[in-house]
Amino acid sequence: MDGDTLYSIGDLARRTGLTVKTVRFYSDRGIVPPTGRSPAGHRLYGIDAVARLDLVRTLRDLGVDLPTIRRVVEREISLSEVAAAHAEALAVQIRTLRLRRAVLTAVTRRGSTPEEMDLMHKLAKLSEDERRRLIGDFLDAAFGGLDADPGFAGIRRSMTPELPDDPEPEQVEAWVELAELSQDPEFRGVMRRLAEQHAAERALDATGLPRRDPVAMVRDQAGPALTAGLDPASSRSDPVVAAVTARYAHVVGRPDDAGLRRRLLVRLESANDPRRESYLRLLSVINGWPAPESLTPVLDWFVQALRVRTPG
Questions:
Q1: What residue segments make up the domains of the chain, in order of their start?
Q2: CA 303 to CA 218: how far, in whole Å?
Q3: What is the pTM of this model?
Q4: How far is CA 53 from the centre of its chain?
């Protein structure tokens, strides 16, 4: 057959692998118009109808709607424009499906109730802007009025979760837990106190130089004592406590006395709140960071050691 050959609907169906009903459907909608009619009045089509039908079938398989397909075959819009638009739409659909899969996987793993599943779905499908506003409100409560200081601005950035577009189930689960935790008024109060204590210590430090956080001091000095199994109340732990309090006194520019030790005790008890460690652990899961070191054991040890040596 050559380019002048005309085809019936049945011929087109056989050549394209479509049904006669489908070919007639596209023809009735003007997507594949007939070239002419047979003496009996049946529709006839040119060879270009085969190419059109192949294109239509491909576009339909890709989810393109019929009005758009008609504009493409009539060259009202380019195929590349349609492809770009649908690629973007498919990317959104794929992200939605992956998010749903992650939520369902997390629900299965947690054995969630219907109410928990509903909350998880609502929190997981928040847009990036909505997630930023939710966490921004929490960070404002913790650092508002303090984060003009570059040091606090850096801390704020380091505590911001960034849920990826294609999250794993454990990232969705972590995001939901973190979002719930960030709305806990008591936890907000803990974080605010820590920020204010940190700000007060910075104000006392006239050098303006980087310095060790009290938690880091405890980790460095008390970690070996904990590993060695020292009793925090024994006299063998005296040098450990003295080393930390002397360093802290030097940093804040105050004498190493009972008042300073009470101040340090309050600081460390706030830092040892289990919700703070949970936040940091969940944050690392969401952001794909290495799991943070748990400081609870060494803080528990040192807080006990400091308390027995600090008069009420």
A1: 9-75, 81-120, 127-308
A2: 9
A3: 0.66
A4: 43
